[in-house]
Write a sequence for this structure.
């Protein structure tokens, strides 16, 4: 669980696909090498249904760096940026 925008009640992470409100189970770590330093990682969240679609979108642009289960990402989040859409 992560805090909501107000920083109070925790909310379940949801998929970053447009219009999807399903629970996220994957983290897609990416960066745009034209504007981000190599170590910078931005994140999108994905449900099972949209994991491949979002991965392909980032992949064809050369942005996708890693796809990790959300639980694994959260367990290893020390030193990583916060998960978010």
């Amino acid at each position: 669980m992560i805090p909501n925008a107000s920083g109070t009640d925790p909310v379940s992470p949801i998929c970053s696909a447009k219009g999807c409100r399903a629970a996220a189970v994957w983290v897609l770590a990416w960066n745009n090498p034209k504007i981000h330093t190599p170590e910078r990682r931005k994140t999108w969240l994905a449900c099972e249904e949209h994991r491949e679609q979002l991965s392909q979108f980032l992949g064809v642009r050369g942005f996708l760096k890693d796809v990790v289960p959300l639980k694994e990402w959260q367990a290893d989040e020390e030193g990583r940026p916060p998960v978010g859409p």
Observations:
- The CA atoms of residues 37 and 79 lie 16 Å apart.
